[in-house]
């Protein structure tokens, strides 16, 4: 690890202006990005007494080998540039709110030719609409079973779908009218997509439109003495109302708000948000973050809003008129200006003091407390095991310091053809999947595994040296 004295900039060289700074390690990787109203004051705080810093901040300062900065014209520009760099470099020491993946969501894969309704946990996928979360998990299965009665959208896996296409026979759901059976051509791709869009519209809150339409059809069936159809429509209306009533009104129907809450200790913090649209809770998300610097709650709120609304990759993350927080974010004026710029309209960020909104925030805070407690119980054994494994590896290889980054390579082929290689990365004992890579191997390098491995290692470090030379 580097001694901070070796790369500390002279005080007179650091400007007094607002700006954004980056710490890099000995390999040139950006490991931390921060912003400051006064660059000189902020950077000097890292070097004045490194031993007095928080443990994780001290580790960052001693891991770094250089620091650089960029002066900007205003604090708003600093906020925007900081977020851009964090997204670009994904620095390992920055505060990053990691998604809580423990809740199941109802998902509709609108990116497929025949959209599929399914239950998903984990990372959110592109071109997929999400609704929920549902707790307990039984509730989501009941919702799906009820909804496909009225909107018979495909729910089967790709394997089941292809087998039905080959045999020309649908699965059981196709026979009992809980699937429109696009696999055997009972419905066109366009009509099936329209069904999926209606399914999404209903789950997004447009329930009254569909219920009114079914009631009108039921009345027409009764007028024509078609009582069998009327009874079926009656049952469909009852099913939709059961789903609709699960989304109970928690605030006035004209309320669109995101309600955030935090629960923290000296090392970590858990955050939760309820997305309220039309007075109903339409979604929820949770994150857990490790504190790197000695951050106050307003700083955490600022980073949380910056990350959630900066992503902009989910319908739940569309910025509402009202954002309710436990405390106002630091640099609140700049944050308000940034949010208004993203939304293109007024945004109110405030702390609820009393009434239904304050009560609902209490519920969100309880969720955050539960999430932090669960995270702590799961991580207690993981950290101990990981640290022990890294120390054991260091001793076995007789290394002066632990292996903070490990890259593993492997070669694969099909009887000597279609040769490919993969690289997986482990940092601090954890997989860093964003840096996994695949390599295609052709020509003379594909003659055997030894030549292929040489080619991959050579290309990897050639690119690394080129990247390092470009940054210096």
TrEMBL record:
Electron transport among keywords: no
UniProt keywords, alphabetically: Cytoplasm, DNA damage, DNA excision, DNA repair, Excision nuclease
UVR domain residues: 208-243
GO BP, sorted A to Z: nucleotide-excision repair
Signal peptide: none
InterPro entries per the UniProt record, alphabetical: GIY-YIG_endonuc, GIY-YIG_endonuc_sf, GIY-YIG_UvrC_Cho, UVR_dom, UVR_dom_sf, UvrABC_protein_C, UvrC, UvrC_RNase_H_dom
Alphabetized Gene3D superfamilies for the sequence: GIY-YIG endonuclease, UVR domain, UvrC, RNAse H endonuclease domain
Listed Pfam families: GIY-YIG (PF01541), UVR (PF02151), UvrC_RNaseH (PF22920), UvrC_RNaseH_dom (PF08459)
PANTHER family: UVRABC SYSTEM PROTEIN C, UVRC/OXIDOREDUCTASE
Name assigned to this protein: Excinuclease ABC subunit C
Originating species: Arthrobacter agilis
